[in-house]
Structure formats: C-alpha cells, structure tokens
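Quiz preparation item.
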C-alpha cells in the first residue's frame, strides 16, 4: 500500500504529483460502459455481476488515465439487502415501493451483520478487482464507498429521490426518535459493510453524504455528521492505516464545526477551495473541487485546474470534481481534465 500514490496522498504524505480521479468515473459518459450495461440488461444486474462490475471499474484507468479506481456499485444496495424493494426505472431513477413510515416498518428489515453479509456480490467484485489491479503492477489504489446514513435514509423514507425532503424533514422535526432509530440501524449495517469491503481488498473508503445540504446547519451534526464520524471511528479502530474520505455536499457553513478521525475532506464545487483550505487544510487533506459542468469546455477545465492548483500548491490535495461527472460529457474532455491535473502538478 505504501507504493500507491493515491493512498500516500490521502495520508498527507509527499507525492511526486497530485493524483486525480472523478466521482462517477465508471459510468454513462463512456461508450464502453454503456456496452457492458446493455449486456447486463439493467443497472442492478450490472451491480450484481462481479465480472462486469470489475470490468467497468477498471475502464476509466485505461481510457481516461485516472490515478485510482472506485468500485462500481450503488449506495442503495444497502437498503435493498436490508429488505426494501428497490427498482431502477428509466427516466425516473431508483424507487422503493415500501418506504419507511413507522417503527414497525423499520422492525421488519434485516439489520446489522446479517444485512451486510448479504452483499456478497460486492465483496466478490472487490476480490476480483484486487487480483486484477495487483496483476497490472501499476500500484493503482481501489476506493470503496458507501452512502452516509442520512443520504441512505432519505431514499428509504421518501421512497425515491426528492427535491424538498419534506417527508424526511417532517419526521426530523415531528418524530426525531424514529429518524434516529432509522439512522442508527443504517449506521450499523454500513459499519459492517465497509469492514467487509476493507477485508475484501479496498485501499481507501469514501463516505458520500450527497444530500447533506438538505439539513439546516444547526441540525446537521445531530442527524448526519455524528453518524458518519461513528462509522469512521469504528473503521479506524480496526484499520488505522486505511484512509477515510468524507464527502458532505454543500455545507461550507459547517466547516468551522467539522471534526472526526478521518483523513480526507471532499470539497464540493459550490464551496470555495480557498475557504476549505483556510478552515480545514491543516487538519485534513482536501479533495476536489472542479465544477463538473466545466468539463463541457476544455478551456474552462484548464482554467479551473490551474486555479485549484494555485490555491492548493500541490500539497495535501487530491484533484477531483466537486460532484459526479455527467453522462453527456465528451470522453476527450474527461481525458483533458486528467492530463491537465497531471501537467500542473508535475507528473513526468
């Protein structure tokens, strides 16, 4: 692991250049990915097929030139294996037919280690990837991931993606005990799930809180951050040398209150990199934060990469987008982003 530049960067060690990867880098912008997904039949089938999931995980390494692989899966495999009825629908995204409305709904779900043990296809994908990446001999790190408990709970309670989060937030303010019970149970599954990912061969953990900005700042620690920190504490107690990345999207007002035993803080595109460096750069390595839509223009991509590099100075930093790459981004522009990150940071 010590020879993996991405792992060293996560741990704040000096590296010969600043590594780069992209959230959603294994995805629909790549024609090669679309071919494999078509062969699988649908998105969930692809997640459940270790050979195909490993194939699309590795594609961005060879096609785009990123410095780390991120496991191809989905955050919603957790509630799916807890016993909720998950479906992916074209043009509508993921939906649960049986959203959680009561303690009785929560009680019927599979919990803890039992739920995590059902995710064998994820662990099999990681083991296959570990073998394939080691055989390459290029010391590419493998990132595992999970959704944060709050982000997972929003889908479990709302039943689908939402713009208002009114059902979740109604529960937050009118029945906080139930919401905490849901968050607690999801947290326990996530702990064991990430432990199994590490045991299967991942090098780095990222915890995504995609819907962090839905919570008002005074409530964020209580209903999200403390659960993320609980997961990080659990993993660090068992695997102190495995880096952990926290990515809460859209909460720059919370920077003064960030705490926890983790290594890298992911900065979203709407949060100024200079502010993150000022508030968090001494405590955590920073990751990010180019606006994903800049990828539509190579000129604007170069300008952003140079600006981020100027702010960070090639120290305690990992290049990434400030959220996921979009499906209609030209592959050549993604390659350009990676090559520009390497250029400004001195990769030979």
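Solution:
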């Amino acid at each position: 692991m010590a020879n993996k530049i991405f792992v060293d960067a996560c741990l704040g060690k000096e590296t010969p250049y600043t590594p780069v990867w992209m959230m959603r880098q294994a995805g629909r912008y790549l024609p090669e990915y679309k071919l494999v997904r078509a062969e699988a039949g649908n998105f969930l089938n692809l997640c459940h097929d270790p050979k195909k999931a490993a194939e699309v995980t590795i594609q961005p390494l060879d096609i785009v030139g990123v410095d780390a692989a991120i496991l191809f899966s989905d955050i919603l495999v957790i509630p799916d294996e807890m016993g909720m009825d998950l479906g992916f629908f074209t043009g509508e995204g993921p939906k649960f037919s049986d959203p959680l409305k009561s303690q009785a709904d929560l009680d019927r779900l599979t919990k803890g280690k039992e739920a995590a043990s059902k995710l064998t296809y994820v662990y099999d994908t990681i083991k296959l990837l570990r073998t394939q990446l080691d055989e390459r001999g290029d010391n590419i790190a493998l990132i595992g991931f999970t959704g944060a408990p709050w982000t997972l709970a929003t889908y479990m309670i709302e039943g689908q993606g939402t713009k208002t989060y009114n059902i979740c937030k109604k529960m937050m303010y009118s029945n906080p005990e139930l919401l905490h019970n849901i968050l607690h149970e999801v947290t326990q599954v996530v702990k064991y799930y990430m432990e199994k990912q590490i045991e299967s061969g991942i090098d780095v953990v990222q915890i995504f809180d995609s819907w962090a900005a839905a919570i008002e700042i005074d409530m964020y620690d209580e209903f999200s951050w403390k659960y993320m920190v609980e997961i990080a504490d659990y993993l660090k107690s068992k695997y102190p040398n495995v880096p952990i990345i926290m990515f809460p999207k859209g909460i720059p007002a919370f920077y003064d209150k960030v705490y926890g035993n983790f290594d890298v803080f992911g900065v979203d595109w709407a949060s100024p990199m200079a502010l993150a460096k000022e508030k968090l750069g001494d405590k955590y390595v920073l990751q990010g934060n180019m606006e994903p839509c800049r990828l539509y223009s190579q000129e604007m991509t170069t300008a952003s990469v140079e600006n981020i590099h100027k702010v960070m100075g090639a120290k305690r930093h990992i290049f990434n987008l400030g959220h996921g790459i979009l499906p209609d981004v030209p592959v050549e522009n993604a390659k350009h982003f990676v090559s520009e990150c390497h250029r400004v940071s001195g990769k030979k």
